[in-house]
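Researcher: Let's do a round of design. I'm pasting the structure tokens now; please hold your answer until I've finished.
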């Protein structure tokens, strides 16, 4: 998760009026046993995603913890 580059790259790729659907790991996921991702630098903190994309109009944002899908 490159917090400096990714929002700009995605913002440039979106057309005017385009919609971004983004699913990623949060720091809550790091607490799950057996998860392959261990580095907190690659996980978002609560409320971080809308802040990273502050140049975009956020229509809806939610942070949920899904059940284990394995």
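Researcher: That's everything. Go ahead.
Model: Designed sequence:
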């Amino acid at each position: 998760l490159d917090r400096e580059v990714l929002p700009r790259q995605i913002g440039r790729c979106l057309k005017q009026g385009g919609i971004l659907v983004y699913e990623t790991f949060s720091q809550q996921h790091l607490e799950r046993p057996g998860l392959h991702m261990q580095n907190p630098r690659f996980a978002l903190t609560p409320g971080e995603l809308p802040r990273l994309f502050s140049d975009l109009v956020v229509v809806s944002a939610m942070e949920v913890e899904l059940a284990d899908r394995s």
